């Protein structure tokens, strides 16, 4: 059995050793949710088995070797919310946050795998229906623990909270007072990435914090799709800022100053989803694409962070808002716990394996947690050096800014602003356009398939007609008498539509019974539009006259005319008569259409044009009919076609 994961990733041991300064791996806990009622109803099987408290065994449904993954803790579907809270060691993270560390708990996994349930519990079953306390998630349990804990501290603690969501690659404040608007993410050397103008609310009681949580949860965007009735469509970050002012500490002096104190951040990532599996379309699909892109960026950063050479590597945290805001937790000075959530169903195995690999990789990342620096008094020489360095940096930056203004006065800044404002809009437009084009392509494909099917029927008909015509009309020898047209007719019975004709016609030369089309008054047998009179002497250029046909008179040749609807009907009726069976009804041929029509809707393009050949056959048959009418009348005792017709 293959085993993956970090055997040494014991969260308790690593955190108890004290994280300060030393390399600490990211802790990963795996939670397997129970089978949902939908999965059970569909009779889906479980592909996951927890063996022990830290190993998960995956059994591929079609056989094959089991694969085992090892994590800090593995929790099966029978574990309660309280079990999960304890196993994740969130209290220890809280203690670290109280000591000034920056700690993060984040859930990730496929859509519908139980991330939101793990962090905040199930959604309320109705308006005003409270969620039973036993189902409360990690966040509510941590809040309760923290508020209780700070009561017992000997120094006062200031608690503040912010709550944001990253929806379609834009940051939205879930606690904002005014009308919501996207907020910019900025970076300073001292603070790293942060969200500008994000509302940070001070609170003093558990109830107040729970209200803030409810406010954010109710504002967070969610939708229903095939795999989850209430699927979160955004990544949500709730941060508790914990400050414990001491006599030495001074309040921050400017906006670039890092906040003093610890942080405890809860991140509920939106689930990765296969659009084909969730059936997402339109807005849902746009959201899914945005979610998947940011998760991809996160996965890329995680892979690069694993590289032992990473200190020389550039980690592309700037690739998405999510990676910017998680940069410190993943690659910096934070203490991080990841809760990977999976479904046990064998149907979800590909996505589950991807989550397990992601989690295995993540637990090999190490951070170097750092507690708060005491802002004690610096020695004067050090302060002076720093001042000089900052002045130099300031001068250099001003110089660069001036240069930019000189080379392209106004234009560069305006272009940058425009790009920032519009890039996202453009991306959305492209995605909508893409969707529209896909739809059009589907329509064109179905037109093309229809045309091809029709073409096949026609080709078959033409082939049959040609075969019959050729077998019936061998080329005449020079000087020999013309071939009797009746030999073109293999069937003896009349094909005329009853009750118009019950007659039997015979060939005037050889007395073979003739089919309907050789009848001299066959016009009576056919619908009127079939027999549209041709212009006298008309011979299509595309027609190859039969050997016995009279040569066309000079100047009588006309350019081939457009095929009309009646031509089409005529061809079909003709084909039916000759083949002795009903021709598969099909649409009239597509017109050549204007050149600006979509390719697939233009008749003939790319598909062999059978029209001239059908016309040729029609012409040949007509000529042979004329010829048969000009043949000498049979003797008295034979029944001529004319005679036969008189009885019709
Ligand atoms: N451990 C569990 N026990 C019972 N029900 C669970 C458990 N985990 C998840 N569920 C249920 O499964 C469904 C999906 O869970 P949840 O919404 O938490 O998934 P998610 O991973 O957050 O999905 P998304 O990424 O789409 O937001 C919910 O109805 C939830 O109540």
UniProtKB/TrEMBL annotation:
Bias kind Basic and acidic residues: ranges: 1-13
Biased composition (Pro residues): 544-554
Coiled-coil regions listed in the entry: 427-454
One Pfam family hit: Kinesin
SMART domains on file: KISc (SM00129)
GO molecular function: ATP binding; microtubule binding; microtubule motor activity
Record PROSITE patterns: KINESIN_MOTOR_1 (PS00411), KINESIN_MOTOR_2 (PS50067)
Span of domain Kinesin motor: 25-365
Name of this protein: Kinesin-like protein
Organism: Mus musculus (Mouse)
């Amino acid at each position: 059995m293959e085993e993956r994961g970090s055997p040494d990733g014991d969260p308790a041991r690593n955190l108890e050793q004290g994280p300060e300064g030393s390399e600490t791996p990211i802790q990963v806990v795996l939670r397997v949710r129970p089978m949902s009622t939908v999965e059970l109803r569909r009779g889906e099987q479980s592909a996951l088995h927890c063996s022990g408290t830290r190993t998960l065994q995956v059994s591929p449904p079609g056989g094959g070797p089991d694969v085992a993954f090892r994590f800090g803790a593995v929790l099966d579907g029978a574990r309660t919310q309280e079990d999960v809270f304890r196993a994740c060691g969130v209290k220890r993270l809280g203690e670290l946050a109280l000591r000034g560390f920056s700690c993060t708990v984040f859930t990730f996994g496929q859509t519908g795998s139980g991330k939101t349930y793990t962090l905040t519990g199930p959604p309320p079953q109705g308006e005003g229906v409270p969620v039973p306390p036993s189902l409360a998630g990690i966040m509510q349990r941590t809040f309760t623990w923290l508020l209780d804990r700070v009561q017992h501290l000997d120094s006062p603690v200031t608690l503040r909270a912010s709550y944001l969501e990253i929806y379609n690659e834009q940051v939205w404040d879930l606690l904002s007072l005014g009308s919501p608007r996207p907020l910019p993410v900025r970076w300073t050397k001292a603070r790293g990435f942060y969200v500008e103008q994000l509302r940070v609310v001070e609170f003093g009681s558990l109830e107040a914090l729970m209200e803030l949580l409810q406010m954010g949860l109710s504002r967070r965007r969610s939708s229903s799709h095939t795999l989850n009735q209430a699927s979160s469509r955004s990544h949500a970050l709730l941060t508790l800022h914990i400050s414990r002012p001491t006599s030495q500490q001074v309040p921050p002096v400017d906006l670039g100053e890092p906040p003093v104190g610890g942080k405890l951040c809860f991140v509920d990532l939106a689930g990765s989803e296969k659009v084909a599996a969730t059936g997402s379309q339109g807005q849902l699909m746009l959201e899914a694409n945005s979610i998947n892109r940011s998760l991809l960026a996160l996965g890329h950063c995680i892979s690069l962070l694993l590289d032992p050479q990473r200190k020389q590597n550039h980690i592309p945290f700037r690739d998405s808002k999510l990676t910017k805001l998680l940069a410190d937790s993943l690659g910096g000075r934070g203490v991080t716990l990841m809760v990977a959530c999976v479904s046990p169903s064998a149907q979800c195995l590909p996505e589950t394996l991807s989550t397990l690999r992601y989690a295995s990789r993540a637990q090999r990342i190490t951070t170097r947690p750092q507690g708060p620096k005491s802002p004690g008094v610096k020695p004067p020489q050090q302060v002076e050096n720093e001042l000089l360095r900052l002045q130099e940096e300031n001068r250099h930056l001003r110089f660069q800014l001036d240069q930019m203004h000189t080379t392209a006065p106004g234009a560069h800044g305006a272009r940058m602003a425009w790009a920032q404002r519009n890039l996202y809009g453009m991306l959305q437009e492209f995605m909508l356009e893409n969707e529209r084009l896909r739809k059009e392509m589907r329509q064109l494909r179905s037109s093309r398939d229809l045309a091809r099917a029709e073409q096949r029927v026609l080709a078959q008909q033409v082939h049959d007609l040609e075969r019959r015509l050729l077998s019936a009309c061998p080329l005449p020898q020079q000087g020999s008498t013309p071939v009797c047209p009746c030999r073109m007719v293999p069937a003896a019975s009349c094909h005329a539509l009853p009750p118009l004709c019950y007659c039997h016609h015979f060939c005037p030369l050889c007395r073979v019974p003739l089919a309907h089309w050789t009848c001299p008054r066959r016009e009576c047998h056919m619908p009127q539009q079939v027999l549209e009179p041709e212009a006298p002497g008309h011979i299509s250029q595309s027609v190859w006259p039969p050997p016995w046909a009279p040569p066309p008179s000079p100047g009588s040749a006309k350019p081939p005319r457009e095929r009309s609807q009646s031509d089409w009907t005529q061809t079909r009726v003709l084909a039916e008569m000759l083949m002795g069976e009903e021709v598969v009804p099909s649409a009239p041929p597509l017109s050549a259409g204007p050149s600006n029509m979509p390719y697939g809707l233009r008749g003939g393009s790319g598909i062999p044009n059978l029209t001239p050949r059908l016309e040729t056959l029609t012409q040949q048959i007509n000529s042979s009919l004329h010829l048969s009418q000009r043949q000498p009348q049979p003797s008295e005792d034979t029944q001529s076609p004319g005679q036969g017709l008189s009885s019709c």
